[in-house]
TrEMBL record:
SUPFAM superfamilies assigned: Ribonuclease H-like
Name of the protein in question: Uncharacterized protein
Protein backbone atom coordinates (compact mmCIF):
# COMPACT_ATOMS: atom_id res chain seq x y z
CA UNK A 1 0.00 0.00 0.00
CA UNK A 2 2.86 2.38 0.76
CA UNK A 3 4.32 1.76 -2.70
CA UNK A 4 0.95 2.37 -4.25
CA UNK A 5 0.50 5.73 -2.49
CA UNK A 6 4.01 6.76 -3.43
CA UNK A 7 3.49 6.04 -7.11
CA UNK A 8 0.16 7.91 -7.06
CA UNK A 9 1.79 11.02 -5.62
CA UNK A 10 4.47 10.99 -8.34
CA UNK A 11 1.92 10.63 -11.11
CA UNK A 12 -0.30 13.38 -9.76
CA UNK A 13 2.50 15.95 -10.12
CA UNK A 14 2.37 15.93 -13.92
CA UNK A 15 -1.37 15.63 -14.43
CA UNK A 16 -1.97 19.05 -16.02
CA UNK A 17 -1.94 17.57 -19.52
CA UNK A 18 -4.28 14.75 -18.70
CA UNK A 19 -7.75 14.79 -20.23
CA UNK A 20 -10.63 15.42 -17.88
CA UNK A 21 -14.01 13.75 -17.89
CA UNK A 22 -16.62 16.43 -18.38
CA UNK A 23 -19.38 14.44 -20.06
CA UNK A 24 -21.42 11.75 -18.45
CA UNK A 25 -23.96 9.26 -19.67
CA UNK A 26 -27.39 9.72 -18.22
CA UNK A 27 -28.81 6.93 -16.21
CA UNK A 28 -31.11 4.57 -18.07
CA UNK A 29 -33.21 4.07 -15.00
CA UNK A 30 -36.48 6.03 -15.10
CA UNK A 31 -38.11 7.28 -11.94
CA UNK A 32 -41.83 7.93 -12.01
CA UNK A 33 -43.16 11.21 -10.64
CA UNK A 34 -45.30 10.63 -7.55
CA UNK A 35 -49.02 11.02 -8.08
CA UNK A 36 -49.20 13.49 -5.22
CA UNK A 37 -46.80 15.88 -7.00
CA UNK A 38 -48.71 15.50 -10.28
CA UNK A 39 -51.98 16.45 -8.60
CA UNK A 40 -50.42 19.52 -7.01
CA UNK A 41 -49.09 20.74 -10.34
CA UNK A 42 -52.40 20.00 -12.07
CA UNK A 43 -54.48 21.80 -9.45
CA UNK A 44 -52.18 24.82 -9.46
CA UNK A 45 -52.40 25.06 -13.25
CA UNK A 46 -56.18 24.81 -13.25
CA UNK A 47 -56.47 27.46 -10.54
CA UNK A 48 -54.20 29.78 -12.53
CA UNK A 49 -55.95 29.54 -15.89
CA UNK A 50 -59.50 28.95 -14.71
CA UNK A 51 -62.29 31.45 -15.24
CA UNK A 52 -62.75 34.56 -17.35
CA UNK A 53 -59.90 36.37 -15.61
CA UNK A 54 -57.20 34.41 -17.41
CA UNK A 55 -59.01 34.70 -20.75
CA UNK A 56 -59.18 38.45 -20.30
CA UNK A 57 -55.49 38.53 -19.38
CA UNK A 58 -54.52 36.48 -22.44
CA UNK A 59 -56.61 38.70 -24.73
CA UNK A 60 -55.12 41.85 -23.24
CA UNK A 61 -51.57 40.53 -23.68
CA UNK A 62 -52.38 39.58 -27.29
CA UNK A 63 -53.81 43.04 -28.03
CA UNK A 64 -50.83 44.74 -26.43
CA UNK A 65 -48.48 42.62 -28.54
CA UNK A 66 -50.27 43.67 -31.72
CA UNK A 67 -50.14 47.32 -30.70
CA UNK A 68 -46.44 47.25 -29.79
CA UNK A 69 -45.27 44.91 -32.56
CA UNK A 70 -43.64 47.75 -34.51
CA UNK A 71 -41.82 49.20 -31.52
CA UNK A 72 -38.36 48.12 -30.49
CA UNK A 73 -36.91 47.21 -27.10
CA UNK A 74 -40.25 46.87 -25.35
CA UNK A 75 -39.80 45.82 -21.74
CA UNK A 76 -42.66 43.94 -20.14
CA UNK A 77 -41.95 45.57 -16.77
CA UNK A 78 -42.86 48.93 -18.33
CA UNK A 79 -46.37 47.63 -19.02
CA UNK A 80 -46.99 46.31 -15.52
CA UNK A 81 -48.34 48.71 -12.89
CA UNK A 82 -46.53 49.39 -9.66
CA UNK A 83 -47.80 47.15 -6.81
CA UNK A 84 -49.01 50.18 -4.87
CA UNK A 85 -50.99 51.40 -7.90
CA UNK A 86 -53.13 48.25 -8.06
CA UNK A 87 -56.15 49.37 -6.10
CA UNK A 88 -59.18 47.53 -4.81
CA UNK A 89 -62.42 49.38 -4.15
CA UNK A 90 -64.13 48.74 -0.83
CA UNK A 91 -67.72 49.33 0.20
CA UNK A 92 -68.30 50.19 3.83
CA UNK A 93 -71.82 49.66 5.20
CA UNK A 94 -72.94 50.77 8.65
CA UNK A 95 -76.30 50.93 10.41
CA UNK A 96 -77.27 53.97 12.49
CA UNK A 97 -80.26 54.18 14.82
CA UNK A 98 -81.69 56.98 16.97
CA UNK A 99 -83.77 56.03 19.97
CA UNK A 100 -86.52 58.12 21.54
CA UNK A 101 -83.94 60.04 23.58
CA UNK A 102 -82.05 60.90 20.37
CA UNK A 103 -79.11 58.73 21.35
CA UNK A 104 -77.16 57.48 18.36
CA UNK A 105 -76.31 53.80 17.98
CA UNK A 106 -73.88 52.85 15.22
CA UNK A 107 -73.24 49.31 14.00
CA UNK A 108 -70.55 48.62 11.42
CA UNK A 109 -71.82 45.80 9.23
CA UNK A 110 -68.59 45.40 7.33
CA UNK A 111 -66.11 46.74 4.81
CA UNK A 112 -66.38 44.57 1.72
CA UNK A 113 -64.11 44.43 -1.37
CA UNK A 114 -66.15 45.48 -4.38
CA UNK A 115 -66.10 42.53 -6.81
CA UNK A 116 -68.55 43.70 -9.48
CA UNK A 117 -67.63 44.21 -13.13
CA UNK A 118 -68.12 47.98 -13.01
CA UNK A 119 -69.29 50.79 -10.75
CA UNK A 120 -72.55 51.57 -12.47
CA UNK A 121 -75.50 52.53 -10.29
CA UNK A 122 -77.33 49.24 -10.91
CA UNK A 123 -74.29 47.12 -10.09
CA UNK A 124 -73.56 49.09 -6.92
CA UNK A 125 -77.16 48.86 -5.76
CA UNK A 126 -77.22 45.09 -6.33
CA UNK A 127 -73.97 44.75 -4.39
CA UNK A 128 -75.30 46.69 -1.40
CA UNK A 129 -78.63 44.83 -1.46
CA UNK A 130 -76.81 41.48 -1.42
CA UNK A 131 -74.73 42.48 1.59
CA UNK A 132 -77.75 43.83 3.48
CA UNK A 133 -79.65 40.63 2.77
CA UNK A 134 -77.04 38.71 4.79
CA UNK A 135 -78.31 40.59 7.87
CA UNK A 136 -81.97 40.26 6.84
CA UNK A 137 -82.03 43.98 6.00
CA UNK A 138 -83.28 45.83 2.95
CA UNK A 139 -83.47 49.34 1.55
CA UNK A 140 -87.03 50.67 1.82
CA UNK A 141 -88.91 53.94 1.57
CA UNK A 142 -88.97 54.28 5.35
CA UNK A 143 -85.17 54.19 5.62
CA UNK A 144 -82.62 56.93 5.09
CA UNK A 145 -79.35 56.26 3.30
CA UNK A 146 -76.44 58.65 3.91
CA UNK A 147 -73.81 58.72 1.16
CA UNK A 148 -71.37 61.17 -0.32
CA UNK A 149 -72.56 63.55 -3.00
CA UNK A 150 -71.04 61.97 -6.09
CA UNK A 151 -73.36 61.58 -9.06
CA UNK A 152 -73.07 57.78 -9.13
CA UNK A 153 -74.10 57.59 -5.47
CA UNK A 154 -77.05 59.89 -6.09
CA UNK A 155 -78.16 57.72 -9.00
CA UNK A 156 -77.62 54.49 -7.07
CA UNK A 157 -79.84 55.36 -4.10
CA UNK A 158 -82.50 57.56 -5.65
CA UNK A 159 -84.96 54.62 -5.39
CA UNK A 160 -86.52 53.10 -3.30
CA UNK A 161 -85.03 54.84 -0.26
CA UNK A 162 -84.56 58.42 0.91
CA UNK A 163 -80.99 59.45 0.21
CA UNK A 164 -79.39 62.24 2.22
CA UNK A 165 -75.99 63.74 1.68
CA UNK A 166 -73.27 63.24 4.27
CA UNK A 167 -73.11 66.28 6.53
CA UNK A 168 -69.33 66.00 6.77
CA UNK A 169 -69.03 66.55 3.04
CA UNK A 170 -71.36 69.55 3.17
CA UNK A 171 -69.36 71.13 6.00
CA UNK A 172 -66.13 70.33 4.22
CA UNK A 173 -67.32 72.11 1.08
CA UNK A 174 -68.44 75.13 3.08
CA UNK A 175 -65.07 75.38 4.79
CA UNK A 176 -63.32 74.94 1.47
CA UNK A 177 -65.24 77.83 -0.10
CA UNK A 178 -64.63 79.97 2.96
CA UNK A 179 -60.87 79.51 2.85
CA UNK A 180 -60.45 79.57 -0.93
CA UNK A 181 -62.82 82.42 -1.80
CA UNK A 182 -61.37 85.11 -4.04
CA UNK A 183 -62.88 87.78 -1.79
CA UNK A 184 -61.07 86.43 1.26
CA UNK A 185 -57.81 86.27 -0.63
CA UNK A 186 -58.01 90.02 -1.20
CA UNK A 187 -57.62 90.66 2.53
CA UNK A 188 -54.12 92.09 2.92
CA UNK A 189 -51.86 89.66 4.71
CA UNK A 190 -49.77 92.56 5.94
CA UNK A 191 -52.22 93.14 8.79
CA UNK A 192 -51.14 89.86 10.35
CA UNK A 193 -47.53 89.03 11.25
CA UNK A 194 -48.05 85.50 9.92
CA UNK A 195 -49.41 84.03 6.71
CA UNK A 196 -52.76 82.28 6.76
CA UNK A 197 -52.92 78.72 5.53
CA UNK A 198 -55.28 77.73 2.73
CA UNK A 199 -57.87 75.06 3.22
CA UNK A 200 -56.33 71.58 2.74
CA UNK A 201 -57.80 69.38 0.04
CA UNK A 202 -57.96 66.26 2.23
CA UNK A 203 -61.61 66.13 3.28
CA UNK A 204 -61.06 63.65 6.12
CA UNK A 205 -58.57 65.56 8.25
CA UNK A 206 -58.87 69.07 6.86
CA UNK A 207 -60.32 70.46 10.08
CA UNK A 208 -57.23 69.72 12.18
CA UNK A 209 -54.66 71.88 10.31
CA UNK A 210 -57.27 74.62 9.99
CA UNK A 211 -57.86 74.58 13.74
CA UNK A 212 -54.15 74.38 14.36
CA UNK A 213 -53.49 77.51 12.30
CA UNK A 214 -56.39 79.31 13.96
CA UNK A 215 -55.02 78.65 17.44
CA UNK A 216 -51.55 79.68 16.35
CA UNK A 217 -52.89 83.00 15.03
CA UNK A 218 -55.51 83.51 17.73
CA UNK A 219 -53.58 86.27 19.46
CA UNK A 220 -53.07 88.15 16.19
CA UNK A 221 -56.64 87.92 14.89
CA UNK A 222 -57.99 90.62 17.18
CA UNK A 223 -56.25 93.30 15.14
CA UNK A 224 -57.45 91.89 11.83
CA UNK A 225 -61.11 91.06 12.48
CA UNK A 226 -63.88 93.52 11.89
CA UNK A 227 -65.76 94.88 14.88
CA UNK A 228 -68.80 92.83 13.89
CA UNK A 229 -66.93 89.54 14.36
CA UNK A 230 -64.71 90.64 17.21
CA UNK A 231 -67.43 90.11 19.84
CA UNK A 232 -68.02 86.54 18.65
CA UNK A 233 -64.29 85.96 18.61
CA UNK A 234 -63.92 87.03 22.23
CA UNK A 235 -66.64 84.57 23.31
CA UNK A 236 -64.71 81.56 22.00
CA UNK A 237 -63.45 79.09 24.58
CA UNK A 238 -59.79 78.87 23.60
CA UNK A 239 -59.11 76.40 26.39
CA UNK A 240 -61.63 73.98 24.86
CA UNK A 241 -60.09 74.44 21.41
CA UNK A 242 -56.68 73.58 22.85
CA UNK A 243 -58.08 70.38 24.34
CA UNK A 244 -59.79 69.52 21.04
CA UNK A 245 -56.56 70.04 19.13
CA UNK A 246 -54.68 67.82 21.56
CA UNK A 247 -57.41 65.17 21.32
CA UNK A 248 -57.45 65.17 17.50
CA UNK A 249 -53.66 65.01 17.20
CA UNK A 250 -53.45 61.18 17.13
CA UNK A 251 -56.29 61.07 14.58
CA UNK A 252 -54.24 63.31 12.30
CA UNK A 253 -51.14 61.14 12.70
CA UNK A 254 -53.00 57.89 11.99
CA UNK A 255 -54.78 59.29 8.94
CA UNK A 256 -51.45 60.43 7.49
CA UNK A 257 -49.97 57.00 8.20
CA UNK A 258 -52.84 55.22 6.44
CA UNK A 259 -52.61 57.64 3.50
CA UNK A 260 -49.17 56.34 2.51
CA UNK A 261 -49.16 55.57 -1.22
CA UNK A 262 -45.81 53.76 -1.40
CA UNK A 263 -46.63 50.63 0.59
CA UNK A 264 -49.75 48.70 1.65
CA UNK A 265 -51.46 49.91 4.82
CA UNK A 266 -54.55 47.69 5.01
CA UNK A 267 -52.99 45.51 7.71
CA UNK A 268 -52.70 48.58 9.95
CA UNK A 269 -56.41 49.42 9.95
CA UNK A 270 -57.54 47.15 12.80
CA UNK A 271 -54.73 47.93 15.29
CA UNK A 272 -54.96 51.66 14.57
CA UNK A 273 -58.73 51.52 14.97
CA UNK A 274 -58.28 49.92 18.39
CA UNK A 275 -55.78 52.65 19.24
CA UNK A 276 -58.38 55.33 18.48
CA UNK A 277 -61.01 53.45 20.49
CA UNK A 278 -58.67 53.46 23.47
CA UNK A 279 -58.11 57.16 22.85
CA UNK A 280 -61.84 57.77 23.34
CA UNK A 281 -61.85 56.35 26.87
CA UNK A 282 -63.31 58.93 29.26
CA UNK A 283 -61.08 60.04 32.16
CA UNK A 284 -61.97 62.00 35.27
CA UNK A 285 -59.75 64.97 34.40
CA UNK A 286 -61.19 65.37 30.88
CA UNK A 287 -62.71 68.67 29.83
CA UNK A 288 -66.51 68.66 29.62
CA UNK A 289 -66.36 69.29 25.88
CA UNK A 290 -63.91 66.43 25.38
CA UNK A 291 -66.21 64.14 27.37
CA UNK A 292 -69.03 64.94 24.96
CA UNK A 293 -66.80 64.27 21.95
CA UNK A 294 -65.64 60.93 23.35
CA UNK A 295 -69.22 59.92 24.17
CA UNK A 296 -70.32 60.76 20.63
CA UNK A 297 -67.41 58.88 19.04
Amino acid sequence: MMKHFGSWEKNSINNNNESLINEYFSSRKTRSVPTRIKKKVLNATVELVGGNGFINLAQTVFDAGQELSKSENTNVSDLLPHPTAVSVSFCGISLHFLNEELQLYAFILGCYPYDRDNQSSSQMQQFVDAKLLEFDLSVENSKFVATDNENKMKSCFKDPCIRIGCSIHYLSKQLEHCFTSVTLEKIPQSKSPRTFQSYPDNRFNGAFPTMNVFLTLSNDLAGVLDRTFLDDYMLMDKDLLEHVRSFLGPFEELINELSCDKKPTVYKVLPLRQCLINRCTIHQNDHDGIRQMKTFL
